[in-house]
């Protein structure tokens, strides 16, 4: 495919940013990828702030003092940041590396092979594509993705084979859905103009995120964007829209040197569970409720079918 086909005025079908980045020896990005920036968008890079670290082994410690101290810290982390790093979680580093590698191999497939998983509906069990929701977005994001529903029903693409083997091992029991979202951010010739994934909060209860060694995640804290540098072999965890704590806005920026891969494991309530404000709060006088009842399925559909507009999807459903 030549450059003209890729950036032609109205390509009939969008190719991946991976193909775009590789086939053009470009020094500038197509205008459709230019993300409008605002004055308050700059990341705060001070050294005093870093996200809380939760030592998972202490959460399950047989020493009650250690355990309760860590539980307290977890509560504070959810309250203050909605985002924290999890260390000593017991998942072997080799498994995490193998997951990243399997996703890298998926993105290396040909456009035709990946096209098999293009998906028509946001709840299709396996979906591969580019940007976030290209049919409704004015600006395209410098990101390709692969989404797989892994629970309650397990799905896996046939290709690459490494994928299938790896994920079979990771099956779990229970009713709540878990969705794996792999993100690929190829090197971008003008990273300051593009955006990998714009500000959003995640649906669900808690998201666990791993990445290759390359930075790019930013989290909003006290109105400022903070660069996140996870410790090797740690998970990042963030609170989703369906937990009582405030879910936090985050985004992914891109760079001009390295391929970045991240994998978000999203855990939510059952798709048909109706979620609404807890009655205790309404009895305590927090009424009328700010949100009506909605199933998790309806919420995921709403978030995934619209564009990411820099706000949490919760704003969209808030009673005025
Ligand atoms: O790539 C990242 O660091 C963030 C990914 C993310 O926020 C998501 O997939 O929801
Ligand atoms: Fe996210």
UniProtKB/TrEMBL annotation:
SUPFAM superfamilies: Clavaminate synthase-like. It holds the Pfam family 2OG-FeII_Oxy. Residues 176-269 form the Fe2OG dioxygenase domain. Transmembrane segments: none annotated. Keywords: Iron, Metal-binding, Oxidoreductase. The keyword Metal-binding applies. InterPro entries: DIOX_N, IPNS-like_FE2OG_OXY, IPNS-like_sf, Oxoglu/Fe-dep_dioxygenase_dom, Plant_2OG-oxidoreductases. Belongs to the iron/ascorbate-dependent oxidoreductase family. This is 2-oxoglutarate and Fe(II)-dependent oxygenase superfamily protein.
């Amino acid at each position: 495919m030549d450059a003209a086909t890729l950036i032609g005025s109205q390509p009939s079908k969008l190719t991946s940013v991976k193909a775009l980045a590789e086939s053009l020896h470009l020094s500038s990005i197509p205008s459709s990828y230019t993300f409008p920036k605002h004055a308050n968008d700059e990341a705060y890079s001070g050294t005093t702030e870093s996200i809380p670290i939760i030592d998972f082994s202490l959460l399950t410690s047989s020493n009650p003092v250690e355990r309760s101290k860590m539980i307290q810290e977890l509560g504070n982390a959810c309250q203050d940041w909605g985002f924290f790093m999890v260390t000593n979680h017991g998942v072997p580093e080799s498994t995490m590396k193998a997951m990243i590698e399997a996703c890298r191999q998926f993105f290396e497939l040909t456009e035709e092979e990946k096209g098999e998983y293009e998906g028509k509906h946001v709840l299709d069990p396996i979906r591969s594509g580019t940007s976030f929701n290209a049919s409704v977005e004015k600006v395209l994001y410098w990101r390709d993705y692969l989404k797989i529903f892994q629970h309650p029903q397990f799905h896996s693409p046939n290709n690459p084979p490494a994928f299938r083997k790896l994920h079979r091992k990771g099956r779990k029991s229970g009713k709540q859905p878990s969705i794996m979202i792999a993100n690929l951010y190829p090197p971008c010739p003008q990273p300051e103009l593009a955006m990998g994934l714009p500000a959003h909060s995640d649906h669900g209860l808690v998201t666990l995120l791993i990445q290759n060694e390359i930075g790019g995640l930013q989290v909003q804290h006290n109105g400022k964007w903070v660069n996140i540098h996870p410790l090797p072999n740690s998970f990042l965890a963030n609170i989703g829209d369906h937990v009582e704590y405030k879910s936090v806005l985050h985004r992914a920026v891109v760079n001009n040197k390295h391929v970045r891969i991240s994998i978000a494991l999203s855990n939510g309530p059952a798709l048909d569970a109706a979620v609404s404000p807890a009655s205790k709060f309404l009895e305590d006088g927090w009424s009328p409720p700010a949100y009506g009842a909605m199933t998790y399925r309806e919420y995921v559909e709403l978030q995934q079918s619209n564009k990411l507009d820099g706000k949490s999807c919760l704003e969209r459903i808030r009673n005025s």
